[in-house]
Specification:
The chain is an alpha/beta fold. Helix content is about 35%, strand content about 30%. Belongs to the ABC transporter superfamily.
Length: about 230
């Protein structure tokens, strides 16, 4: 599904440069649920941005679903993102003046679907996250957990190959975090491949595998041995 080899990334700082990723090798198979962990400055956000085609590596290889991701124009990157990826963000990134169903429909608009089909698919996904009755509500009428469910429905709407979640529980209380993780686990159980950045150990332990970064290198890559932790514990 995803294969990264010898990935390097540096950013200029004044006259020098900061070497953020130092030869990352990472493979993720279809159906995996992987947590990426690391302290601030470890490179985890840079890695996620490169995987999400929001940034480009200086050197190394990135292959997604058999397609080399290299030298993309902004237009091509946007097409690939819409084709391959679904994004879930800590801050939800909903459009405030659009209601829930319109927010979910956005990726489908960019795929060129007719309005009727967009709304039908969007309602299906809102139903999947338990929010069909909230379809016409604006984001400011929703709780944090409901906003994140709308964001998950939007991420799923275009049927992506890979879900990228950046601190998806970071803005939520513990109970709501576990409910959201419960739902994300169920998506993985259905076969969805999920890559998640988190700094919370309990959230990471609800994944199937944990990759730990430090100073731009992978320090540890382990499978979670125990029966996958339940969000209800």
């Amino acid at each position: 599904m995803l294969k990264i080899s010898k990935l390097h990334k540096s950013y200029p700082i004044g006259d020098s440069s900061l070497h953020v990723l130092k030869g990352i090798d990472l493979s993720v198979e279809e159906g995996e649920m992987v947590a990426i962990m690391g302290s601030s400055g470890s490179g985890k956000s840079t890695l996620l941005n490169i995987i999400g085609m929001l940034d480009e590596a200086d050197e190394g290889e990135y292959i997604l679903d058999g397609v080399p991701i290299v030298n993309l124009t902004e237009k091509k990157a946007a097409i690939y993102r819409n084709k391959f990826l679904g994004f879930i963000f800590q801050s939800f990134n909903l459009i405030n003046y659009k209601n829930a169903i319109e927010n979910v429909a956005l990726p489908l608009y960019y795929q060129g679907l007719k309005r009727k089909e967009r709304l039908e698919k969007s309602l299906f996904h809102l139903e999947k996250v338990g929010l069909a009755n909230w379809a016409n509500h604006l984001p400011n009428e929703l709780s944090g957990g409901q906003k994140q469910r709308v964001a998950i429905a939007r991420a799923l709407a275009a049927n992506p190959k890979l879900l990228l979640a950046d601190e998806p529980t970071g803005a939520l209380d513990t109970k709501t975090s576990y409910e959201i993780m419960d739902f994300i686990q169920s998506l993985n159980d259905e076969g969805k491949t999920i890559l998640m950045v988190t700094h919370e150990e309990d959230i990471a332990n609800m994944c199937k595998r944990i990759v730990r970064l430090k100073d731009g290198v992978i320090m540890e890559d382990v499978f979670v041995n125990q029966e996958r932790a339940s969000a209800h514990v």
